[in-house]
Design goal:
The protein is of the alpha+beta class and 436 residues long. Helices cover 30% and strands 31% of the residues. The strands form three sheets. Strands 1, 5, 6, 7, 11, 12, 13 and 14 form an eight-stranded mixed sheet that branches. Strands 2, 8, 9 and 10 form a four-stranded antiparallel sheet that branches. It has a two-stranded antiparallel sheet with strand order 3-4.
């Protein structure tokens, strides 16, 4: 067994396969072959070259974005001392003044004014902060987890409800009471009429092309009076956006999102075909809400900041918990231009794919048609060379070849014999054509 296996392995090393062309005349096989070829040609030309622009080379966009907001809003909440009656402008509601690829607009807030560092009762809503005189759990010097300061060791009445006792803390006092001033309503709901100027400069370095979203045909009067509108022939080129319009394009209501805040994406997409006029390389805008409006916990967007001042030698601060909308700007895009190299590569790949038609037709012919054994006999031919490695070393190849030659030449080939063979071959060919 072992020598036989070894001989088979060795014999494979001394073999060579060369293609053999067999011309098969069959309607079934012919139709299958042409359909596969048409499918491959359609894929290469229609999809790879035309739709995917396989005749172009591409470059990704490099960009920078800056923003400038404008707008004022008047509020009159005289019953809320921390807010009162006042005007809010850009310096009040845009925090911080500049961000990289984003801008934040405050729409609601919780303000705790006049804080200074002293002792005061902790917020009774903090877990584990309540106490009583019999079991005083206010260990001095221990920070309040998720609270506002450090325990002093005293148990005192709460500033919100004198019947509840809480641990006294050393902190910025009075502590923040985390409750919206007007439940279900945004203090700066009027910010939906604010506008933002978005200036986007882009470059396709490979093609040395620079563009910006403010068209060269624009003038000062156009920028003064326009507001972006995707459905207007002129205003769709305006780089000034109303905040209410941006949020509305996401399918959300501005008054709702303004209460707790949220995250909105402004997507600027540059898809440029540089085989056309450069003026046709213009951006398209898309708007989406990114945060989950149905979140059960940690909903919206908020953070805290403080402004400090000196009050007759005492350092004080106004603490603000700001709710608002974070507008995140994203720039995407590619540019394409004709180049013979990718076109040649796609055509070459298509020609190589045409070989798939031959493989599939061979499978059909050799494994599925009725006369598959006949086709296999015609397709595969074994030729043994004079120096072939033979597994059976007892066979004299030259003697066997000479015997076969003598037998072939000794066979009479009368005219009648040749005519009978030709007639049988014709009948076989006709039979195959009828049954395939």
């Amino acid at each position: 067994m072992a020598p036989s296996v070894a001989n088979r392995i060795v014999s494979v090393l001394f073999e060579y396969d060369t293609p053999k062309i067999v011309h098969i005349r069959s309607k079934k096989v012919g139709v299958i072959n042409r359909l596969i070829q048409l499918g491959i040609i359609g894929y290469v030309i229609g999809w790879a070259i035309v739709y995917k622009k396989g005749y172009q080379e591409f470059d990704d966009v490099t960009s920078s974005v800056t923003t400038k907001l404008k707008g004022v809003v008047y509020t009159n909440y005289s019953h809320i001392p921390s807010i009162g009656e006042r005007i809010w402008d850009v310096a009040d509601y845009v925090i911080p003044p500049q961000e990289n690829g984003a801008f934040f607009v405050m729409t609601n807030m919780v303000i705790t004014p006049g804080q200074n560092q002293t002792t005061c009762p902790e917020d009774p809503n903090i877990p584990g902060i309540r106490c009583d005189d019999l079991a005083n759990n206010c260990t001095a010097g221990q920070p309040v987890t998720n609270g506002n300061g450090v325990r002093t060791g005293n148990c005192v009445p709460s500033a919100l409800n004198a019947s509840i006792k809480v641990c006294e803390i050393y902190a910025w006092c009075p502590v923040e009471i985390d409750q919206l001033p007007v439940p279900g309503e945004a203090i700066l709901a009027g910010s939906k009429e604010f506008t933002v100027l978005i200036k986007n400069n882009i470059e396709f370095r490979k093609f040395k092309v620079k563009r910006r979203n403010i068209l060269e045909s624009s003038n000062a009067s156009f920028l003064t009076g326009c507001k972006y509108n995707a459905y207007d022939a002129y205003d769709k080129f305006c780089p000034i956006f109303e905040l209410g319009y941006i949020v509305g394009q996401t399918g959300e209501d501005y008054e709702d999102i303004a209460v707790k805040g949220g995250v909105v994406a402004i997507i600027i997409n540059w898809e440029c075909n540089l085989d056309h006029k450069i003026e046709e390389c213009i951006p398209k805008y898309d708007f989406r809400r990114l945060d989950d409006k149905n979140a059960k916990i940690a909903k919206g967007w908020n953070f805290r900041y403080a402004t400090y001042y000196d009050d007759q030698g005492t350092q004080r601060r106004n603490l603000t918990k700001a709710y608002g909308i974070l507008f995140a700007l994203t720039v995407t895009g590619t540019a394409g231009k004709f180049n013979i190299v990718p076109l040649t590569l796609n055509i070459g790949s298509g020609l190589a794919l045409l070989g798939v038609a031959t493989v599939l037709c061979d499978i059909v012919v050799l494994y599925f048609l009725k006369y598959r054994e006949y086709y296999k006999d015609k397709k595969y031919l074994t030729v043994t060379g004079s120096d072939a490695y033979e597994m059976n070393s007892g066979v004299d190849f030259r003697q066997q070849q000479e015997t076969e030659e003598r037998t072939r030449h000794a066979t009479p080939k009368s005219p009648g014999h040749r005519q009978r063979i030709n007639r049988e071959d014709s009948q076989d060919s006709l039979l195959l054509g009828e049954n395939d």
